[in-house]
Design goal:
The chain is α+β, with helices and mostly antiparallel strands. The protein contains 2 helices and 6 strands; from the N terminus they run E-E-E-H-E-H-E-E. The chain has a 4-stranded mixed beta sheet with strand order 3-6-4-5, with helices on one face. The chain has a two-stranded antiparallel ribbon with strand order 1-2. It is globular, with a radius of gyration of 15 Å.
Length: 132
């Protein structure tokens, strides 16, 4: 069983992030743990879509496909780390997450703005830890 915790002893989760963020997740019993390498917005054909939104949706598609390949779903996700190369894409990330990954039991989330990713054309990378 996984529980999410937002105790009153830490800063409350802002309403904007309600449903896509929690301060902590806890696994209560032994489980199968799935660690997904950072997923990027490169299509199956090797093409990199132009623009943040297209790359973000493609990376999210890869995350969902990898979870499904392990008989897992977004509800099994404990932690997500987002790496963005441009701070101006943060509002777009929030909107996309709310549209795609809104949940009553959101994972712990860290979002970083980095100087670059493995390919300079990449704008986002998503790393996930899940447990069943």
């Amino acid at each position: 069983m996984i529980t999410r915790t937002n105790p009153s002893t830490v800063r409350p989760v802002p309403e904007t992030f309600s449903g896509i963020y929690t301060h902590a997740t806890q696994l209560h019993h032994p489980a199968r743990v799935i660690a997904l390498s950072g997923q990027i917005g490169v299509g199956l054909d090797g093409a990199i879509p132009s623009g943040f939104e297209a790359q973000c949706h493609t990376a999210m598609d890869h995350v969902e496909a990898l979870l499904a390949a392990h008989q897992a779903s977004l509800g099994d996700v404990l932690r997500v780390t987002y790496y963005l190369t441009r701070a101006q894409d943060l509002p777009h990330l929030t909107r996309i997450r709310q549209a795609r990954w809104l949940s009553d039991t959101p994972p712990a989330v860290t979002t970083l703005v980095v100087a670059g990713l493995a390919n300079p054309d990449l704008l986002v990378e998503i790393e996930v830890l899940a447990a069943i």
